[in-house]
Amino acid sequence: MDRSTSLLRLILLALGAALVLLVVRSAFRLPRGIDTPTTSLFDDEATAGSSCTRFAPWGCRQADRIKQKPPSHENDVPRHPLDPLTISEVNRARELLRAHPPFASSPSSMFVHSLALDEPDKPVVLSWRKGVDPLPPRRAVAVVRFRGEAFVLAIDLASGAVTPLPVPASGYPTMTMDEQVLLCYTPFRDPAFNATIQRHGVRLSDVACLPISLGWYGPSEENRRLIKIQCFSAEGTANFYMRPIEGLTVLVDMDTREVVRISDRGAGIPIPPAANTDYRYSRHMQDEGDDQQTAGFQKVRAPSMEPGPSSGPRVELVDGHTVRWGGWEFHLKADARAGMVVSRARVQDPGTGAHREVLYKGMASELFVPYMDPTEAWYFKTYMDAGEYGFGLQAMPLVPLNDCPRHARYLDGVFVAADGRPYVREKMICVFERYAGEVAWRHSESPITGLDIRESRPKVTLVARMVASVANYDYIMDWEFQMDGLVRIKVGLSGILMVKGTSYSHLSEARGNEGDMHGTLLSENVIGVIHDHYVTFRLDMDVDGADNSFVRVEMARQETGPGDESPRRSYLRATRRVAETEKDARVRLSLYHPAEFHVVNPAKKTRVGNPVGYKVVPAGTAASLLDPEDPPQKRGAFTNNQIWVTPYNKSEEWAGGLFVYQSKGEDTLDTWSERDRPIENKDLVLWYTLGFHHIPCQEDFPIMPTVSSSFDLKPVNFFESNPILKQRPTKEDDLPICTASTAA
Amino acid sequence: MDRSTSLLRLILLALGAALVLLVVRSAFRLPRGIDTPTTSLFDDEATAGSSCTRFAPWGCRQADRIKQKPPSHENDVPRHPLDPLTISEVNRARELLRAHPPFASSPSSMFVHSLALDEPDKPVVLSWRKGVDPLPPRRAVAVVRFRGEAFVLAIDLASGAVTPLPVPASGYPTMTMDEQVLLCYTPFRDPAFNATIQRHGVRLSDVACLPISLGWYGPSEENRRLIKIQCFSAEGTANFYMRPIEGLTVLVDMDTREVVRISDRGAGIPIPPAANTDYRYSRHMQDEGDDQQTAGFQKVRAPSMEPGPSSGPRVELVDGHTVRWGGWEFHLKADARAGMVVSRARVQDPGTGAHREVLYKGMASELFVPYMDPTEAWYFKTYMDAGEYGFGLQAMPLVPLNDCPRHARYLDGVFVAADGRPYVREKMICVFERYAGEVAWRHSESPITGLDIRESRPKVTLVARMVASVANYDYIMDWEFQMDGLVRIKVGLSGILMVKGTSYSHLSEARGNEGDMHGTLLSENVIGVIHDHYVTFRLDMDVDGADNSFVRVEMARQETGPGDESPRRSYLRATRRVAETEKDARVRLSLYHPAEFHVVNPAKKTRVGNPVGYKVVPAGTAASLLDPEDPPQKRGAFTNNQIWVTPYNKSEEWAGGLFVYQSKGEDTLDTWSERDRPIENKDLVLWYTLGFHHIPCQEDFPIMPTVSSSFDLKPVNFFESNPILKQRPTKEDDLPICTASTAA
What we know:
The structure is a homodimer. By secondary structure, chain A is mainly β. Chain A is built from 10 helices and 34 strands. In chain A, 12% of the residues lie in helices and 36% in strands. The first copy, chain A, has a 19-stranded antiparallel beta sheet that branches. Chain A has a 4-stranded antiparallel beta sheet with strand order 1-2-3-4, covered by helices on one side. In chain A, strands 5-6-7-8 form a 4-stranded antiparallel beta sheet. The N and C termini of chain A lie far apart (65 Å). In chain A, 59% of the residues are buried. Strand 34 of chain A pairs antiparallel with strand 34 of chain B.
């Protein structure tokens, strides 16, 4: 079709959707901004009417809230070379883009898929001195689509220069939030769809739809931006996820909003009942006609976590993005794609007092979430949440007291809508000091030695948290910093399951074919489908400087020989192997071939000669068992190993490729690493994949309690001795005085 | 030798040791009780002088403290069938033993190695109704040694009947604390030892020695109770562990206290310096002449954890041993060997309100800690801390505010000294409500769906904790109960490393032979030796009743075929396999052959037909790689698999055997399981081993920060839906009002 008509068509479709919504909004309310523009707070163009167009309805909602408590980001200025683009910088970049050919010919045909800081080169950032040097030139990098074509552009905000950069050979950019929202309403303008819905016995006004990325399964799906939309009944529950209209899949062209194909394989599968699925506390209260002392609700006696008096370390948030606490200093920011980015993490050496570099940049790079059902309505569900949906775009405001403790500090994110306008995501990240009742170190002497020693030091840590709600799943991402130099990176999976409708209301109806359910019967007509989650982190380690090496310290059984003169037959021996090239550093973990994985600075030794390093310490994880030649696994090939090491390359940030949407797996961590570049004594990037297998159980119905796992970055011969030695025990006076709150 | 003279010899040795101690006590103080008897609080025999004999000096220290705050255990009476023996019951059992032939002929020759409740049979406990039924008959089981022979005896406390039980064929009972203490001083009466010490240039008054169990390495070590003693210099530091007199090993006959052999392989190995090894805060303060605002000490701004107002669930401690909280109810007690025992853990069903049985009894059954150095002074270090040293005996009083939060409740333990007298271990277990800033469940709707939903529920849990300080290592044992039915069992390793002296003061001196160090150079003349830790838990699961089955739910790649009509080539398929016999239930975990491990009640199904169960969920762990035929691995064969299932057998409680000291591995979980008994629909016991490899690093010097791992017992189709659905969100009023403490 003629690409030049696509914008017009888009507008018409949006208007059509708005009309439909007059019908559906009772159960399923469209963000107000779509039909109710309000005044923008962020627009620096005097002529502009509103940022609250169809493109940024969530911006409007934020703006409404801002009336009460303005976030004051309009006047933000960057203070650190890594600070994200400010509102005025976004507006400036937008102006420059709109004035740039070919976009200048039709600025409203330009859709901004991403617009973010183009970080200065590492040496520039590393040599910058706060309060002494001016900020390095501010630059942005944008991904835009214009008349069906993708562009990647570097923007010099000072000079105004806009420079095209190479565009990936396959795949499409991360969806804009705007189109994700509109896609939910797209099917309703198709009469065949509406008829299908009616055949399923659902009122249109009860239907809620979700856009589901379709992966890539061969040439028939190439050369157009496609998505599959599936729908649910929201009748009688906010938890429409538990009420799938099973088997109904609407293939849509994302650019034209055209319904390409409707597949309806759900004959005979009822929509599961709404009863007992709504999870909202407020709704339960309403139902029970009771406000507080609630029918069967368990009121948690939450121990509060309140910091003690002011003489200890405190959480400092300097210039909005630099966190200082307990010897740590790092830069923290929201990112539309990665969610949360930790940069320049440095830890104080208790001996010298110097802040020593550990991690130049760390973030979730990509996710891979394959479902394990090969049938028509499910096979394609192999999400890559960061590159397809935007892990940061999906991060919603955190819920004080429940998502983070009372004393938490919050950071907002500034993101960019499809029309290039900025909006603020409030309370997107929280930072708090954590005391979990754990012990950092302790030792008692026993009566054996007769020394009356009881030494103990509580563990207090700092947590930076964000939560991405990618439709049903909520990913709780924690970076936890310990005073002894350890960093724990933790992923919690929460939210709601993606479930499948079934005609079964009892397992006995499966008659021995339970395997063909591809999951567990969770409730009448509801199957929880088996799936995996993989989160691949990119960790640009700079241990005491950029040039590092990767060392495997392998443990293996050593049989004793006659020369050992030992009654022992065997022991464990450790062997250090320095990885020379990328392929040496591909690690598949094994319980029976254990190893430690060190990133060392070969130029630095401790007093007694050990190489200074940090190690990555896996904990519970899972490995993908899909066929490596299966299309989803080729795209998700960055999960083929748990650990990879690559030489630093600014263009290798996204493990599945810059454009993962419908990508073929041609530009992944696996293909980069296949080049087998030298990595010894180089600026290295360490990649770690945290995995989960999930066989649902009834406890995952109708909500899914948080399951979490983590891995650590841990100093190994980095310090001369343990920093905890310098931690003083806690005394009564260190703690606040707490009394019961007046209202009970 | 004539066994009948051994007591006399023991007394003489003890007196000899006491004389030596007049010299050594400045640096290394013997518990006061040894030479300073005080009045007993616990003795109910009017004629007795003191419980504070040479046998229970730690009891004396407790008694001193008790003057300020009596623990009031003298009048304790049992209130639950599983309550541990009270002080008067111990005294009663002691009387009965002393009156029993052959002990009556010489009661003071009888050494009590263990004296504990003989738990009533399971059906008796299960049918007992509090407040209705009288307690079942109270019985004790004792392990005593008398003139070189071991006895196991059942004692009926009411009737006074004492009945001999079978004695294991190999091995010796857990050492008494008394002999462990005395053994520290035994070498000093040997002139050859003293001369050796002088050759090492150490003053006798600076020497501290530790008794080290020697495993079993063949016939030459059979038929006598042997131990190896190694020594350290305590000059200039409380952290004598960092100052080994390397290579010096004193083989001692535990019964005769005879020095059998002195091995001194440490020529040329200096004693590492004391500088920077003392970890005591008080000592540092003294050195610095500073009380609070300390030279470089980091004062932690510990967020306190204080419970909110009284309307939520609270920790109830009923009758001293029954804990109720958040739907959970369980019996909790101290145990001299296992440390801490959780019994009859039952969780409330949010649907029916009924308390449903999960776990009849859970505890650490045995530990295995092999060091990985085959040389003369190290090869034998393959500890089994529970059965050799007594994991509970080594548990010291917890340090309030540092080991447990301010609001923690404490439980004491009542243990038995070698002479059969009871003593109290104060504050041995703490129980507290925990809020770690985590999220039990949360979900936000994204702008995609337009529903403005932000639901979140904080995770509040209950922790029961004890810490065993087995000489240098401190094992922090947590049982954590969640409101959704999950139980997390966590082991933290803290304390101080066992290190090896070396002539090296810089790694370069190893000249490429680093492997022969068997560890890491941590500081000048100090090597941290590679070692493993395994903790094997015995979990008598009773999921909704005693008869359960063990099911592996195996996940494997399934290739799609033409019949699947799917563009996918592969997916993960789960297959359930019910274990028929013990060998079917031996599990070696693999990342590439993942499975879930369910204990189900085959007689109970959920509404939709799923078998009701709990699963054991491993997280990070390690597997022993020693040669299965290596003597230590034969003794530690209970670590050959991570999971085992056995049919319930009251006599199979200790994974390494009842008598593990010098045992040959003839009576372990491995040998029991080898019988391959049927386990389908039986009363089952699940065994799980948590493992750690430890390659020390400089951060482990001079103290070792806590490293922890855990596994979970998690409901799987146990509840009809998730209990968190019934948790109300936290509101400001739920939290206490906290202000800074006045003293800063």
